[in-house]
Write a structure and sequence with these properties.
This protein starts with a strand and ends with a strand. 30% of the residues lie in helices and 25% in strands. Helix 3 packs across helix 10. The protein is built from eleven helices and 15 strands. InterPro entries: ADH-like_N, ER, GroES-like_sf, NAD(P)-bd_dom_sf, Zinc-ADH_QOR/CCCR. It comes from Sessilibacter corallicola. Keywords: NADP. This is Zinc-dependent alcohol dehydrogenase family protein.
Length: 328
């Protein structure tokens, strides 16, 4: 099969097209003919940082985590899928799991689900990592009806899914953005836009919550921004963040009685821990998408498999709106 291989890591590492052995099916797994894959920030981090990240695969490596495609073969013990089924998931590209920048993928059946019927392969491939992350964060934060939810970075990959899911859960949704296009997208997706460049946290807390704060804050920006999340939160509120590798003073969180949920959705893949939860979440996300309540935004630029280097550059440039997707 054709695959895009990395033989070195680093900022100038080049993906090289190569003929690679096609995987053979094994128990508990399915062999998938990949139609599309999407690029996530963690993919670019692995390419650049290599061994500095404990989750990077050994070289030579096939990167890529998300995919959508068609089942070609079924391993022993797999009962939920059949040959010819259209599936999607986040199932490779780190540690000892070969990635999706190839024509075929051997995927653990626990990590995948049937593709949403109403979405294209490219749309479905955009969902898994960001969708699981958003769903896990919002559900761990007990998001529900009549709550006020603030999503930081609502036009980003995780954020634009999170605000749609918060709407689905019945919340009153607000989201920060920093430009006209971002704010327009946030409004289009059903949230009240907040320009963090022109409004202080105190300003928008007073404006939208009468000064009491938000019940849930989903922070897809993270880092130093978590302090803004603490400030924006109501008493006894929940904060979910996807980026928490930072030193912070938790005094404000203490005096507000906040709960902090750190979402790192790669844990089941890295540690083979409760992988079936990913399959269950993806099944639920497909149900929500087929109900017309979830649709990923795809960046306007399209890429083929041999253009994966350009796709990485597109994501890293910060100019992409929505997910960067690669057709295989």
């Amino acid at each position: 099969m054709k695959a895009m291989l990395l033989n070195t890591y680093g900022s100038d590492a080049v993906f090289e097209p190569t003929e690679h052995p096609k995987p053979t099916v094994k128990p508990g797994h399915v062999l998938v003919k990949i139609a599309a894959t999407s690029v996530n920030t963690v993919d670019t981090m692995i390419r650049q940082m290599g061994e500095e990240l404990p989750l990077s695969p050994a070289l030579p490596a096939i990167l890529g985590m998300d995919f959508a495609g068609t089942v070609e073969a079924i391993g022993e013990g797999v009962t939920d899928f059949n040959v010819g089924d259209e599936v999607y998931g986040c199932a490779g590209g780190l540690a000892d799991l070969p990635g999706t920048l190839a024509e075929y993928l051997l995927a653990d059946a626990k990590l995948i689900a049937h593709k949403p019927k109403t979405l294209t392969m490219r749309e479905a491939a955009a969902i898994p990592l960001v969708g699981i992350t958003a769903y896990e964060g919002l559900t761990r934060a007990n998001t529900g009806e009549n709550q006020t939810v603030l999503v930081h970075g609502g036009s980003g990959g995780v954020g634009h899914i999170a605000l749609q899911l918060a709407n689905y859960f019945g919340a009153d949704v607000y989201s920060t953005g920093g430009g006209e296009k971002q704010l327009a997208l946030i409004e289009q997706l059903g949230a009240t836009p907040i320009n963090y460049k022109t409004e202080t946290v105190a300003d928008y807390v007073a404006k939208h919550t009468n000064g009491t704060g938000f019940n849930v804050v989903f922070d897809s920006v993270g880092g130093a921004n978590i302090i803004n999340s603490f400030e924006a939160a109501a008493l006894n509120a929940h904060i979910a963040t996807t980026v928490s590798m930072v030193e912070l003073d938790l005094t404000l969180a203490h005096f507000k009685g906040l709960s902090l949920h750190v979402v790192f959705m790669l844990i089941p893949m890295l540690h083979n821990y409760q992988r079936e939860q990913h399959g269950k979440i993806l099944t639920k996300l497909a149900e929500i998408a087929d109900a017309g309540k979830l649709k990923p935004i795809l960046d306007e630029q399209e890429f083929g498999l041999e253009e994966i280097g350009q796709a990485h550059e597109r994501l890293a440039s910060g100019k992409a709106m929505g997910k960067v997707v690669v057709s295989v």
